[in-house]
Amino acid sequence: MNTILAFLDFSHVSLEVLQALAPLVAFFLFFQLAYLKLPRTFVMNMIKGVVLCVMGLILFLQGVQVGFMPVGTAMGEILGAMETTWPLIFIGFLLGLVATIAEPAVHILSYEVEKASAGSIREKTILATLSLGVALFVALGMAKIIYGVPIHYILVPGYLLALVLMRFCDPTFVAIAFDAGGVATGPMTVTFVLAVALGIATAMEGRDPVLDGFGLIALVAMAPILSVMVLGLIVTSVKKRS
Asked: pTM value?
């Protein structure tokens, strides 16, 4: 009964969503009344969109708090208690892959890239590149937790490599790459993958949830930057040969 009541208690989440969206709505209304003077139809569509956005955010955040994160943490604790830990690397790869494919912002970015490039960069190509890149780095993050590798041993060489790739990569792919880094760290990845990582670090002997569990999202943010720029180098190389 308590679980059902907790699931149906939307008050806290609703207040957070309204506080977050209220300034944006006020900002729009100010410019609408003072400068924009948009047609009534446009304003009504805007209101409908805001209402749907509020409802969607409330349902999503409630699901995250009462479902996604507790389940992810419980899964991580079970996985972290396994005697054989190396399968966690493969599990991390699968988690990163499916979480990125399910990420709405990743699909939007992939669609916009194809649209802006007039179809020369395909949506499915960007989606596959981001998904595989994130999957590899989530697997690397799992290895970091298992073997206790300090996060800066991975991040510093990774971003140094990104700076080197910028020198040789097409500027178009550099711009896409750094936007993709922010897009990949969306609600699906952060809420589920991070919860699993924290659960694993909590359950594993000799691991600190704060020192070893966190840092995975930093790797996820770096993954698209490197993977998209590598894609850019491949595309550039193919064009030069043809």
From this structure: 0.83
